[in-house]
Amino acid sequence: MTYATEPHVSPTATAAPTDGHVLVEVDHLTVTFGRQMVLRDISIQIRRGETVAILGESGCGKTVFLKTLVALQRPTRGKVLFDGQDLFRLSAAELARERTRMGFVFQNAALFDSMTIGENIAFPLRQHRQLSEDEIQAIVRARVAEVGLPLSVLRKKPGEISGGMRKRVGLARALALEPELMLYDEPTTGLDPIMSDVINELILRTRRQHPVTSIIVTHDMRTATKVCDRIVMLYPLARLKPGESQILYDGPAAEIEKASDRRVIQFVRGEAGERLMEMAREENNHAQSAEESVHG
Amino acid sequence: MSTASLRSPNGLPGVPGGMLNNFAQWVADVGARTMDWIVGLGSISLFFARTLRWLVIRRPRRETIIWNFYQIGVLSLPVVALTGTFVGMVLAVQSYAQFKMLNLETRLGAVINMSLVRELGPVLAATMLAGRVGSAMAAELGTMRVTEQIDALAVMGADPIHYLVVPRFLACLVLIPALTLVADFMGVVGGYYYSVYLLHIDAYYYLQNSANYVGWFDLFSGTAKTLFFGGAIAVIGCHHGFHCDPGAEGVGRAATYAFVHSFVTILLLDLLLGIGFDALYNVLFPQGPRLI
Ligand SMILES: Nc1ncnc2c1ncn2[C@@H]1O[C@H](COP(=O)(O)OP(=O)(O)O)[C@@H](O)[C@H]1O
Ligand SMILES: [Mg+2]
Predict the structure, then answer these.
(1) For an interface test with B, which of A88, A94, A101, A111 has the most B Cβ atoms less than 10 Å from its Cβ?
(2) Mean of per-residue pLDDT scores for chain A
(3) Ligand 2 centre from A59 Cα, in Å?
(4) Distance from CA of B153 to the nearest CA of A (A)
(5) Confidence bin at A295 (pLDDT 50/70/90)
(6) Read out DSSP for chain A?
(7) Looking at this predicted complex, what is its ipTM?
(8) For residue B152, which residues of chain A lie inside 8 Å, CB to CB?
C-alpha cells in the first residue's frame, strides 16, 4: 500500500496541488539510540504541495522522524533527501541556507524565553535577511496578525502567555521566512478542543495563502482528517513482529477508515483493543510474583 | 526460609550469591564506568574543539556578549570580593600564633600575600565562579535543551555553539583573571587590616616583607592559571547543559555535575599548572628561590 503507486482522487479533502516533484525523500531510514531502535527501514516520498499527517501513538518515534528531516537527528542507517540533497553532506553555511526553506513548529513552541515574543518572531529574519528595523517590524506584525494574535503580545515574554498563544507564536516564527516546507510536531496536543480547531484552521489557512508542503506529526485524528490529504501511520517497533513494516498505513486521509489493518482501525476509533488484555495479563503476573515471594 | 533472602544482590533468583558472580558483575561495572568516562572525555574534547572553531571563524553577536559579560562578571563581583576579604583575614588569624612563637610576626605579610596571590585567590575565585556561573550555565542551557530551544536555534540557522557557548566561553576566559585580581586585592587588604589593626603587627615591616617576598612572577603565574580554570568552567558547564537528560531531574543533575566536574578539573589543572609554572620559573630565574 505505497502512495507512490496509488495516486488518489479524494472526494472530501482538498486535492493536493502537487506538481509531482519530490521535495522530501526518506530512504530506508533507521534510527537507534544505544540499543533501542526507534525507527526501522522507513521509506516515504513527499511531493511538493502535499499535506501529510504522520500519525502514531506516543513514543513511536514521530518526533525523531521529524527531526531527521531537518538534520537535527542523524540517521543511523539510510538517508533523508531534501529537494534531492542530503543535508548531512552540506557545509554549515549551506545547511543554514537550506533550513531557511523549512519552518519547524515545535511541540511546546520552543520559544526563547530570554526574548520577547516580537524578538522571537524577528529572530529568523535577523539571522538571514538584511532588512531594516522597520521592515522587520512590519513582517513581525503581519505574521502576528496572520495567526490571530493582538499586537500587544509582541512585548510580552513567552512565560506570560497561554499555551495556545505560544503555539501560535511558534507558528508565526516558523512562517517568518515564508518557508516551502512546514513541519509541525503535535500542533494540537495539550490544547482544548476550541484552540485545537483554531490551530487546524490556521494550518489550513497557511496552506491556502502560501504554496507550502506540510508534514504534520500528530496523534489527533481530527487534525489528520481535517487538514491533511495523506496519512502515514507509524507503529511502535516494540509491538511489531520482526519482519513487519513500521508503516501500517500510507494513503489518502479520507480512506483511512477503510484500512484493512485492524491496528489502524483501532487507532482511528481510539480503542484500546488487546492492550486491555495485555494489562490484565501484566497485573496477573505481578500478583503471581508477589504471591511467590511471600509463600515461596 | 524464603527464597528472597537467598537471592544474590545482582539478580539471579534462587541462586546463592556466588563470589565469582559478584566479581564478574564488578568487572563489568568497572568496565562500563571506564567506557562512559572515555566517551564523556571524547565528547567534551570535541565540544571544546567546536567552540574554538566558532570562536575564530565568526565574531560572536554583540547582544549575546554584553548579556553574558554582565551575568558572569558584574554579578559575580560581590561574592568573589567577599570571599577574598575573608580568606585574607582567616589566613592572618590562623598563622599568627605560629609566627608569634618564633617572633616572626612581621613575616605574616609575606605568607598571607604569597598564598593569596599564588593559590588561594585563583582557586577560590574559580571555585566561586564554578558554583555561581558554571552550574547556572548548565541549568540554563539544560532547560533550553529540554524545551527544544537549542533545536529551534539550529533549525533557524543559528549555530547553538556559536550563539550560546562562544559568548559564555569568552566571558569566563576574559573575566576570571579580572575577578581573581579582585579576590587577590581584597584578600591582601583583608589580611593587612586584620594583621595591622587587630593583631598590631608593625605595618612598615609587614609591607616590606611582603614586597621582598612576593614577586611579579607569582602574580603572573597565579593569574595566568585562571585562564585555564575559566575555560574549563565554561566548557564543562555548557557541555553538561547541551547533553542534559529530559525533565527537571535532568536539569538538576546537569547543574550539580557541572559544578562537581569543574571543581575536580580546577584542582587537577591547578596541580599540573603549578608544576608547569615552577619549571618555567626555574628556567627564567636559575639563581633559585629568594629569601628564607
Ligand atoms: N535523544 C534521544 N536519546 C535517547 N532516546 C531518545 C532520544 N530521542 C527520543 N528517544 C526515544 O525514542 C522514542 C521515540 O521518541 P519520540 O520520537 O519523541 O516519540 P513520539 O512519537 O512520542 O514523538 C522514545 O522511546 C524516546 O525515549
Ligand atoms: Mg513527540
Answers:
(1) A111
(2) 88
(3) 7
(4) 9
(5) low
(6) --GGG-----SSSPPP---S-EEEEEEEEEEEETTEEEEEEEEEEEETT-EEEEE--TTSSHHHHHHHHTTSS--SEEEEEETTEEGGGS-HHHHHHHHTTEEEE-TT----TTS-HHHHHHHHHHHH----HHHHHHHHHHHHHHTT--GGGGGS-GGGS-HHHHHHHHHHHHHTT--SEEEEESTTTTS-HHHHHHHHHHHHHHHHHS--EEEEEES-HHHHHHH-SEEEEE--GGGS-TTS-SEEEEEEGGGGGG-S-HHHHHHHHT--THHHHHHHHHHHHHHHHHHHHHH-
(7) 0.87
(8) 104, 106, 110-112
Closest ligand 1 atom, CA of A66? 17
Whose cell is 579580572? That residue is B178
Q: Given CA atoms B235, B153, A110, A69 in this order, what sign does their dihedral have? A: negative
**Distance between CA B148 and CA A108 in Å, rounded?**
8
Nearest to B152 among A106, A293, A296 (CB): A106
Torsion of CA B128, B133, B139, B144, to 10 degrees: -170
All residues of chain B having their beta carbon less than 8 Å from the beta carbon of residue A70 are: 155
How far does the CA of residue B141 sit from the closest CA of chain A (Å)?
A: 11
Q: A220, A123, A223: which is closest to A172 by C-alpha?
A: A123
**Chain-chain contact of A100 with B2 (C-beta, under 8 angstroms):** no
A81 beta partners: A25, A86
- Is residue A273 within 6 Å of ligand 1 at its C-beta? no
Where do we find the cell 491533511?
Answer: A228
Q: Which ligand is nearest to the CA of A62?
A: 1
Of B127, B32, B140, B31, nearest to B79 (Cα)? B127
Which residue's alpha carbon is nearest to atom 3 within ligand 1? A33
Residue A34 confidence (pLDDT): 87
Could you tell me the pTM of the whole model? 0.86
Q: Are B148 and A107 an interchain contact pair (Cβ–Cβ within 8 Å)?
A: yes
Does the beta carbon of A59 sit less than 6 angstroms from any atom of ligand 1?
A: yes
For residue A176, which amino acid is it? A
Of A55-69, A248-262, B1-15, B174-188, least confident by mean pLDDT is: B1-15
Determine the distance separating the centroid of ligand 2 and the alpha carbon of A242, expressed in angstroms: 24
DSSP bridge partners of A185: A217
User: Is A62 a pocket residue for ligand 1 (Cβ < 6 Å)?
Assistant: yes
Tell me the CA end-to-end span of chain A in Å, nearest whole number: 52
Chain B residue closest in CA terms to A185: B148
Question: B244 with B251: CB under 8 angstroms?
Answer: yes
- In sequence order, what are the beta bridge partners of A53? A216, A231
Residue A288: the pLDDT is 80
The CA-atom distances, in angstroms, between A1 and each of A159, A211, A245, A247, A262 are 45, 28, 11, 10, 15
Whether residue A64 has its Cβ less than 6 Å from ligand 1? yes
Ligand nearest to the CA of A234: 1
Residue of A nearest to B64 (CA): A114
